[in-house]
Amino acid sequence: MSSSRPRLLQYGKLPLPQLDSELAQRYDVSLLSAQSDPARFLAEQGAQFELLVTSAAMGVPAHVIDALPNLRFVSSFGVGFDSLDKASLLRRGARVGYTPGVLDDCVADMAFALLLDAARGLSAADRFVRRGDWATQRFGIQTRASGKRLGIFGMGRIGGAVARRAAGFDMQVSYHNRRPVDGSPHAYQPSLLALARACDFLVVTAAGGEGTRHLVNDEVLDALGPQGFLINVARGSVVDEAALARALRDRRIAGAGLDVFEDEPHPLPELLTLDNVVLAPHVASGTHETRRAMADLVLRNLESCLATGRPVAEVPWSAAQ
Ligand code: 8YV
C-alpha cells in the first residue's frame, strides 16, 4: 500500500508511548521489533528507508545500518549516543539527531535523589518501617549530605545542573573533565583519582563509550574511601560494577546510588543483596515533562532533517561530517 507519508523505520518501542502513536500519524512507520523475522524484513525492505528512529537505550547496531543502504537520517530519543554505531553511520553518511539539553534538570534531580537516599538511608528506612522493625529497633544513624564535598566527574550540561543544586546544599564542588571548563567557578581536579580523594560524594555524569569504560575502578573507589559515596546517573559502563559491588560489600566505600548498570536490565546480582546501595531502573529522565520534551525534539529533529537536511540537535561527530 502506498502512502504520501514518508516511510520510517522505528527500531523498537519508545520510552513514551504517545511518541509511538505520534510517529505513526506523521510517518508510514514499520516497527522493526514487531516483525516476525526482522533480518528478512530488512533484507526485503531495508532499501526503502531513509529515516530511522531509535533511542539511547536501544541504540542501533551496525548490522541494521548496513541493511539500510539509503539511510539518511537517524533521530534518537536520548542524550547518550554511545549505543549508536558511529563507524557504520559515518560510512553511510547519515545525519544523527539526539535530545540534549531537555533532560538536564531531571537527571540532576535524580542524582540528588540518589545522593540523599544513599547518605540518609531513605530506601533502607522505608524497608525498615514496612517490615515493622520500628516497634522493636532503632534505625541506624546516617550521614549528613549538606555542607559536604561534592565531586562531579563529567562537567557537561548535566554536571553543571548537579553543581547548581549542590549550591543549595552548601556543598563545595570540584570536578574532573577531559579539560577544565572555561569560566567554571568550581575547582578543577587534574584526574579522576584526585577528584575521588577530594570528595565525599562522587557523582558520575560523564558520557559512556570506550573512552570512559571502567574509569571508576578499584583504585578510584579506594580513593573515595570508607566515608565516600558513589552516585551514577550516566552510563553503567563508566563504573567497574564488580569492583563496586566488592567495595560496597567490604565497606571500602560507604554507599552508592545507581540509576545505570553495565548490563541493563540486569544489575549484578550481588548488588541486590546489599543494603548500602540504592538501585533505580534507569529512570533519571523518566518524568512526564522531560520525556515529553525529549519526544518533541525527536519529532523536530525528523522534521528538520526532511526540511533542511540536518537535525536541530545533531550528535557532535555527525555534525562534523
Ligand atoms: C533515556 C538516557 O531515558 O538520554 C539518555 O541517554 O540514558 C535516558 O535519558 C533512555 O536511554 C531512553 O532512551
UniProtKB/TrEMBL annotation:
<dbReference type="GO" id="GO:0016618">
    <property type="term" value="F:hydroxypyruvate reductase [NAD(P)H] activity"/>
</dbReference>
<keyword id="KW-0521">NADP</keyword>
<keyword id="KW-0560">Oxidoreductase</keyword>
<dbReference type="GO" id="GO:0005829">
    <property type="term" value="C:cytosol"/>
</dbReference>
<dbReference type="InterPro" id="IPR006139">
    <property type="entry name" value="D-isomer_2_OHA_DH_cat_dom"/>
</dbReference>
<feature type="domain" description="D-isomer specific 2-hydroxyacid dehydrogenase NAD-binding">
    <location>
        <begin position="112"/>
        <end position="284"/>
    </location>
</feature>
<dbReference type="Pfam" id="PF02826">
    <property type="entry name" value="2-Hacid_dh_C"/>
</dbReference>
<keyword id="KW-0520">NAD</keyword>
<protein>
    <submittedName>
        <fullName>2-hydroxyacid dehydrogenase</fullName>
    </submittedName>
</protein>
<dbReference type="GO" id="GO:0030267">
    <property type="term" value="F:glyoxylate reductase (NADPH) activity"/>
</dbReference>
<dbReference type="InterPro" id="IPR050223">
    <property type="entry name" value="D-isomer_2-hydroxyacid_DH"/>
</dbReference>
<dbReference type="InterPro" id="IPR036291">
    <property type="entry name" value="NAD(P)-bd_dom_sf"/>
</dbReference>
<dbReference type="Pfam" id="PF00389">
    <property type="entry name" value="2-Hacid_dh"/>
</dbReference>
<comment type="similarity">
    <text>Belongs to the D-isomer specific 2-hydroxyacid dehydrogenase family.</text>
</comment>
<dbReference type="GO" id="GO:0051287">
    <property type="term" value="F:NAD binding"/>
</dbReference>
<feature type="domain" description="D-isomer specific 2-hydroxyacid dehydrogenase catalytic">
    <location>
        <begin position="22"/>
        <end position="315"/>
    </location>
</feature>
<dbReference type="InterPro" id="IPR006140">
    <property type="entry name" value="D-isomer_DH_NAD-bd"/>
</dbReference>
<dbReference type="InterPro" id="IPR029752">
    <property type="entry name" value="D-isomer_DH_CS1"/>
</dbReference>
